[in-house]
Amino acid sequence: MATTDAWLRALADLLCRSHRVPPDRLPAAIDEALRPLGVTATAYLIDVEQDLLRPVTAPDRPRPEPLPVDTSLPGRAYTEVRVRAGQDGRLWVPVVDGTERLGLLEFVLPPGSDPGDGSVWDGARAIAGLVGHLLAGKLRYADALHRVRRSRPMAVSAELLWQLLPPLTFATDTFVVSAVLEPCYEVGGDAFDYALDGGRLTLAVLDGVGHGLPATLTTSVALAALRAARRLQAGLPELAAAVDTAVRSQWTDGRFVTAVLAQADLDSGRLRYVNAGHPAPVLLRHGRAVRALTGGRRLPLGLAPATTTPDEVRLEPGDRLLLYTDGVTEARNRAGEMFGLPRLADLAERHTGSGLPAPETLRRLIRAVTAHADGPPRDDASLVLLEWSGEAAERTEP
Question: pTM score, two decimals?
Fold first, then answer.
């Protein structure tokens, strides 16, 4: 049975190999590092639509079939961000970059090993943690890992937008913020952003007018203007003004961006926000949707100079703030019935009560939206969830 020291040596070996290993050779490097333990590991990446875990294997190993997220034990390990042991002695360990879910590592232990042994779990988690950081870094340098995650070609608008967005999930000891966007291969005008500066979290959800590449270009300019002003430590009125100026300086055809911009003091719970022509965020407290944040209204960004007066609300420990674009509530089924805010709030309450990690809550919410539409979406649909809770943050890591 591999000892703790043996796992640490494998971890150090993989780290040494990682600096110059090409992205397509990373599976082989994992195999080589684990060989002294008699352990083999297969990495699985979650696909773009978060439906399947797709294998990433060394060239000399057979490629297993993808694993369904919703109907398999490995899928449970992924959705719950928890290590799971199979009856055949395998370990399924979530792979995260920080708290961003990337996939799984399947560990096949040597005969006679105890898959419930604490040192085995600790060693496997350490290897999976390093692999998460390596995969996130290697994704920037080659296309092979991107191809694994895709089931079909991606539109130019979506290719551009995904390169601009931050990770879908980020957490510290006191909060977690997570997001999801659909349709992931054609998404255009929807976007989100966040940044943590000391004890202040700045959060934004945006929806550029129109569809496809023109909408993406508008939203991209808005994102860049927002970040440039935010990095000068601008307040909410200045952030809105920066986007106004940037959009109007580039186009004269009346295009605009709706948005919610918010800044949360994570020490006190004070949340200030501006709503520029966007659906009102929903506040959930004690598992119930208690109010919509309807204040801070102003014109959409980019239309004309506008007075921006933030509104304010005080968060309580455990609160969830759900932001969304109109493509969520206005998604229609074949009969023309909209998904609607009451349905969204009801589902958010149910998933809150289930104790799911924030990214899994959003994955299930967006699945409900796409299932309701029952066909190609007419608009982008995006959700962003902020949880001010240390317990919620703990659920985002293995």
Answer: 0.93
CA atoms of 333 and 32, how far apart (whole Å): 51
Question: Distance between CA 375 and CA 334 in Å, rounded?
Answer: 8
Query: How far does the chain reach from its first CA to its final CA, in angstroms?
Result: 23
How far does CA 309 lie from the centroid of its chain? Answer: 30
Q: How is the chain split among helix, strand and coil, in percent rounded to 5?
A: 35, 25, 35
Of 187, 168, 166, the closest CA to residue 178 belongs to: 168
Rounded Cα gap, residues 38 and 243, in angstroms: 56
For the record, the structure tokens of 258 come out as 């709706």
CA 361 to chain CA centroid, Å, is 11
To the nearest 10 degrees (0 to 180), the angle between helices 4-18 and 26-34 is 150
Distance of CA 125 to the CA centre of its chain: 21
Per-residue pLDDT tens digits for 60-119: 778 899 999 999 999 999 999 999 998 788 999 999 999 999 999 999 998 888 878 888
Please, are residues 114 and 104 in contact by the beta-carbon 8 Å criterion? no
Average pLDDT of the segment spanning 337-361: 92
Q: Name every residue whose Cβ is closer than 8 Å to that of residue 105 and which is 6 or more positions away in sequence.
A: 41, 42, 43, 44, 92, 93, 95, 124, 127, 128, 131
pLDDT digits over 197-239, tens only?
999 999 999 999 988 899 999 999 999 999 999 999 999 999 9
